[in-house]
Amino acid sequence: MPKSRSDRKKKAVYTPPPSAAKPKVSPRWVLPTLVTLMVLGVLWIAVYYIAGTMIPYMSDLGNWNLAIGFGGIILALVLGTRWH
Length: 84
Fold this sequence. Notes:
This protein is mainly α. The chain has helices at 30-51, 56-61, 64-80.
């Protein structure tokens, strides 16, 4: 014999998912610092290649100038992961 409608398993009432979390906001210093490090890194390498022998402290550093320039660029990229 078929079951009556009242005996059937009742579906749960639809409940909407919880509201989305607030979007993350990065600190105000992240973007200016990121841009500054990136620009300074690129400028350091460019100045080293263009006039590195004419600037006393740059000629003393030699190829460490590349490490300084790329270090600034890498720090900017790492800082870019914190920017939302």
